[in-house]
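## tool: complex_structure
## caller: assistant
## args:
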Amino acid sequence: MRSRFERMVSAVERAQVLDAPSYQVEHGVSLTFLLAGRYARPLQDLLHGVWLGHPVHPFLVTVPVGAWTAAALLDGLDATGRGGPGTAQAAQAVVGLGVAGAVASAATGMTDWQHAHDEARRVGLVHAALNSTALALYSWSLADRRRGRAVRARVTAAVGYAVVLAGGYLGGTLSYRHRLGVDHSVGSREPRRFTRVADLADLPDGEPVGVDVAGVPVVLVGTEGAVRAVSGRCPHQGAPLGEGWLHRDELVCPWHGSRFDLDTGEPAQGPSTAPLPCYDTRIRDGRVEVRRRAHWRSATALTTVEEASR
Amino acid sequence: MKADEVLIAHHDVLRGLLRELAGTTGAELGRREELRDRLLRELEIHTQIEDELFYPAVVDVSPLLALAHAEHRQIDDQLATVMRLPVDDPDFGAEVRMLEKTLRHHTMEEEERMFPQSHSLGEARLEELGEQLRERQRELAASGGMRLVMRLKRATLRVTKA
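## result:
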């Protein structure tokens, strides 16, 4: 069973033939956002889940999956005559709820998918195609229920449910295998003590510089003699932020354009939904020292006498 | 000319235009408009020849195609921001510099990483590909269809400004 699923997934992952259509689809998504004008950015941040701290898509999909699971149960009871009065109406209501939830899930999913690469992009395209097929089947089923065509409505819903399960399997692949939407930032607590990383004189003003502190990538930004330090790996997909640049005092990711506040590490703009770890900095004898900030969601702590003497 | 040389030459054109545009002041409005329109056209041509000819040719020798597409997308989005701003807007300079940095990263990624990878295609293939790129570039620069697309794009960006 397991190996059969894996063979199917690997076949999709290797299907380079999907790349050309996938970029066409992305151009369509990009054009849609272009037409949204200045609302494009806030709209995409809303759909990514920048306001939430992790992607919106995975929890939104529980609405259609849950509603359609309830519909399958109610359809089963109704078809075998064990449902009692009102079962058909209840089934119709949950199918409708599922359709509404699926439309919202598709919007969030497409927004996240735009920035997927290679294998994840191909799996995502097939995931979207399957779930769109299921959405079409359930919309048809809903229309049939309103017209009183109960048998055909239950058949299309049953087929749709099978398609949703297949689509859901690929969705799981995207999260757990391709780690799409997962926080890719550096988890290491190092360096725990202030560690020398650069000479202050070597830092250009207002330009990020990537350094390596005991295997941990860190980005230093020197502005007017003060130095701020954040993690060197983008939480979105692990891009090297040392190759990024500053715009309006925010660090821009070179791959997908996420922007991060340098004081708090919070994403000021998606696609990253997770914050960037921050490092405390101090300057000793013209040398820059950094230490991983204990609670990096809080502003820089002042160095106490006790800490400074370590 | 080999394919990577053709593309580097066009990168120089793009970088030059951006440097010039970033160097203008709010007093040279006509010049800003003119440079911005040329930039829009050259970037469109550049994206198109890379997407149509170069990337498909290097798909088996470079793992960086997805990144290149992502960077094109980021350039496109920032270009839209610049196109939407009135040329006398106080933010104009900052947004042009942001576009310049975005483009600089993308060209660095190609010139220092992807192009060396493309050398495994061999001299002859790169020469042939370079000729195709130049031919397509000339064709697009002279094409009426391209001018129409540009006009549509400018109009769309103007309409969606508010």
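## assistant note: Chain A has two domains: 2-176, 195-308. Residues 298-310 of chain A have pLDDT under 50 and may be disordered. Handing back to user.
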